[in-house]
Design goal:
Layout (H helix, E strand, L loop, with lengths): L1 E3 L11 H11 L19 H10 L13 E4 L2 H9 L8 E3 L17 E4 L3 E6 L16 H8 L6 E2 L8 E7 L2 H7 L4 E9 L6 E4 L2 E3 L7 E3 L7 E9 L3 E8 L6 H9 L21 E9 L6 E5 L4 H4 L20
Parallel strand pairs: 2-3, 7-14
Antiparallel strand pairs: 1-2, 4-5, 5-7, 6-7, 8-13, 8-14, 9-12, 10-11, 12-13, 14-15
Length: 329
């Protein structure tokens, strides 16, 4: 057994159902503080695992930076320590080796708009995936992060499609990653084909199309999806909108507006015209969150791309950094 006074960052994958059941059977809820993060590949149940692990402890807020913890190499050893009363009130963190690091690519460059000791917010360009995949092994935000932040594990707090530009937060440690999961409030900006009038809400379930593993569609047996929007202005062929999501389904914004009959400009996958723009006109322009350490309200802003502005030249947006209350709709 080892006690570390200033470590709170080594987290591991663990079967959540099995551990929850074991905790309940041992009556350890509130005594054993299990704080884990699943660093699996894109598409895994990472978010639900992290949220579930935090929910295991009745006093989860006590796991804070700088708090003494006990590091245990296995779940059974951690349980034994707790049952034997050897934890002295300290949280127990189950540890296993980190996942293999991403390949650094120092040839890449992605600007950042804000950085603290615990996270960094990048302004991701269009055309760059967030995570590596079979077709994109060295040209992702993860590869740039690995080159610019050696020694840190890549933990994306929010994700953007490859051709969606804008703000993407990466946590520098696992405590921050889990504390901020699902806690970011985002504002997206899009340019739609056609003239959409009036503000509104799209509530339509989204499912994967039967003929593809990539495309999605609105279908009654899909997962619930809700998109709020307000119209910012028009040009002869396009409509600019600001978007707030209640849910975060794959391709949700693209699918919902295509379903309305106003696909995103440049989004040929869902019927958008590429006549005036070569990639989808979708940008994550604002982020709001509460710092998990200082508890201060924070925000970041990224003006939308020039190719989007050129589609609606009369729409001049105020890109000053604002608090969340000023941006509610």
């Amino acid at each position: 057994m080892a006690i570390y006074p200033n470590i709170y960052q080594t987290l591991v994958p663990c079967p959540i159902v099995e551990l929850r059941g074991y905790l309940a059977a041992c009556g350890l809820k509130g005594r054993l503080y299990a704080y884990l993060d699943y660093n699996g590949p894109t598409g895994t149940s990472r978010d639900s695992v992290a949220e579930g692990m935090l929910a295991l402890a009745a006093e989860k807020h006590k796991l804070l930076p700088g708090q003494p913890i006990i590091e245990a190499a296995s779940g059974s050893f951690a349980m034994a320590l707790a049952l034997a009363g050897r934890t002295a009130g300290h949280p127990v963190v189950l540890t296993m080796p980190e996942q293999e690091g991403l390949e650094p690519n120092p040839a890449l460059y992605v600007p950042s708009v804000l950085e603290t000791a615990h996270y960094i917010v990048y302004d991701k360009p269009t055309g760059m995936p967030v995570h590596p995949s079979a077709r994109h092994r060295r040209d992702t935000l993860g590869n740039y992060f690995a080159a610019s932040m050696p020694g840190h594990t890549f933990r994306a707090v929010n994700r953007l499609d490859r051709d969606t530009s804008g703000l993407c937060m990466i946590a520098k440690d696992a405590y921050t990653a889990s504390a901020l999961q699902g806690k970011l409030e985002k504002r997206y900006y899009a340019v739609l084909c056609g003239h959409l009038t009036g503000d509104g809400t799209i509530s339509a379930p989204i499912a994967r199309t039967e003929a593809s593993i990539i495309t999605r569609c609105v279908r009654q047996d899909g997962k619930p999806a809700v998109t709020h929007y307000r119209v910012l202005g028009h040009s002869a062929d396009y409509t600019a909108v600001e978007i707030r999501l209640e849910t975060g389904r794959t391709h949700q914004i693209r699918v919902h507006f295509a379903h309305l009959g106003y696909p995103l400009a440049g989004d040929d996958l869902y019927g958008g015209s590429c006549r005036h723009i070569g990639q989808q006109a979708l940008h994550c322009g604002r982020l709001f969150w509460r710092d998990p350490v200082t508890k201060q309200a924070c925000s970041a802003v990224s003006p939308w791309r020039r190719d989007m502005q050129q589609l609606v030249p009369a729409v001049q947006l105020d890109w000053r950094n604002r608090n969340e209350e000023d941006c509610k709709f």
